[in-house]
Amino acid sequence: MATINADSAGPVETSIREKLMASLQPSKLTITNDSHLHRHHAAMRAQGGGNGETHFSVQVISDAFKGKNTVQRHRMVYAALSDELSQGLHALSLSTRTSDEVQRATTSA
Amino acid sequence: MDHLANLYQIDSPDQFRDLLNQDLNRVSLINFWAPWAEPCKQMNQVVSELAKKYQQLLVLQVEAEDQPDITESFDIEAVPSFIVLRGHALLARISGADAPALTSAIATYTRPTPSAAPSVVSPPVEETQEELERRMREIMAQSKVVLFMKGEPSRPRCGFSSRAVALLERENVKFTHFDILSDEKVRQGLKKLNNWPTFPQFTVNGEFIGGLDVVTEMVENGEFAEVVGAA
């Protein structure tokens, strides 16, 4: 099997990407693997340090979020990833914005 | 301590593992203690009483400093600490010499030894789904703002929970907390009830409002002040 190198996406990350692309059609999707920051946690230790794919930061820019408040947007992401969350995926740090909101943020002084 | 059939002093990780593996349906209580810690003396008495009362409970005494591997694997930071398992599944964690919490946890997950063996094997659930839901809603309403976190405000057991506490303190919001590590039923039940897979979870006026990211954003856009401000 190929050795795991720090830059390649593991199966969980790949799955997150596929599912979010399919359900939210984002204009931009950034996934960062934070798992190494949480290795020492007891829950991770019980899983043998986790599989290196337990904690992610995900930034989604998608117009599917229009008209929805933050809780609703996060629920959409959680719903798309419910399989992963019931397995090794332990936590997600989410940023969910529409393209308009990003525009407004970058153009304001 | 009297010699009790269900109480063991653990002297090796192998012995520990073998005892647990004998019956994966059995509820066990692990007592992490140290001879130099005064509160442990009293709690060891409590543990001994519980072992007598609940003979089907497997009680394992672990002298924390002698068994660093076992102690670390449960993330034990202070003695006395107690872990309740069914097989290898975590049911509850109690930190400190909290006799009422320990007694209540053991009562919840076991039954006193019945005089006749039960003929029907049914899961020892003392609490129905309805009762659990009612209990969770009560906790959610125990104060205007409740933070469901891992650990407690003075000792959070996860970075996200720690940030959640910091956020509430920064916003000068009075709150109470519930340690979801101390009750596995509530932990799993809340995920379903609030349709939210992670912790920390914030509730205001008995209603779930979101996790850390959500509330952080709400603070930024002023929504949080409104939600909390409303009497």
Written description of the protein model:
The complex is a heterodimer of chains A (109) and B (231). Helices cover 39% and strands 18% of the residues of chain A. With 109 residues, chain A is of the alpha+beta class. Chain A has a single domain, classed as BolA-like (GMP Synthetase, Chain A, domain 3), CATH 3.30.300. Chain A has a 3-stranded mixed beta sheet with strand order 1-2-3. The longest helix of chain A has 14 residues. Chain A is globular. The termini of chain A are far apart. In chain A, 29% of the residues are buried. The N terminus of chain A is likely disordered. Helices cover 40% and strands 22% of the residues of chain B. Chain B is elongated, with a radius of gyration of 20 Å. A 5-stranded mixed beta sheet of chain B has the order 1-3-2-4-5, covered by helices on one side. In chain B, α2 links the parallel β2 and β3. Chain B contains 9 helices and 11 strands. Chain B is an alpha/beta fold and 231 residues long. The longest helix of chain B has 16 residues. Chain B folds into 2 domains: 103 residues, 3-Layer(aba) Sandwich (Glutaredoxin), CATH 3.40.30; 100 residues, Glutaredoxin, CATH 3.40.30.10. The interface between A and B is medium-sized, with 21 and 20 residues. Chain A: This is Bola-like protein. Chain B: It comes from Leucogyrophana mollusca. Chain B: This is Glutaredoxin.
Provide a count of the helices of chain A.
Answer: 5
Shape of chain A: globular
CATH architecture of the largest domain in chain B: 3-Layer(aba) Sandwich
* Cα distance spanning the termini of chain B: 54 Å
> How many beta-strand elements of chain B?
11
User: Can you count the beta strands of chain A?
Assistant: 3
Secondary structural class of chain B = alpha/beta
- What strand order characterises the main sheet of chain B? 1-3-2-4-5
- CATH homologous superfamily heading of the largest domain in chain B: Glutaredoxin
At the third CATH level, what is the topology name of the largest domain in chain B?
A: Glutaredoxin
Which CATH architecture of chain A?
Answer: 2-Layer Sandwich
Please write the string of helix (H) and strand (E) elements of chain B. EHEHEHEEHHEEEHEHEEHH
| Mean pLDDT over the full residue set of chain B | 88
CA-based gyration radius of chain B: 20 Å
